[in-house]
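Listing S7. Sequence submitted for prediction.
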Amino acid sequence: MKPLLAAPFFFALLACATPQERCITKAAPDLPVLNRLIAETEGNLARGYAYADVTVETPVWVDCGDWLSNREEHIRPGLCLGSAQTTVRKPVAIDLTAEAAKLASMRTRRAALEAQAHPAIAQCQAQFPA
């Protein structure tokens, strides 16, 4: 359900992109994802720990329909104890050596992707000058 809620925002953001940016994104769709992961890993190394998103359930009162009062025979609203889910970011320990190796690997992969996509990116820049 959450991806469906995010879809309008994604398409609105995509509509704001210039034709050149859309062309480059089509030519190298993995580069923005890899750049985001590299930035996240650099942040993890700078902090010395990472963040993990954890779903937490908290008790909440919810309307569970009407119920009949025994004393006065009046119908009253009933409340039941339910739960609501929220996502919380928690710090988690990481292996700094493994994280540094992962960062080096991603930088190598980014260089390879950029070299592979360079002709298509150059064509996009020529087709849609900024």
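Caption to Listing S7: primary sequence and predicted structure tokens for the chain studied. Residues 96-127 form the longest helix (32 residues). Residues 51-93 form one domain.
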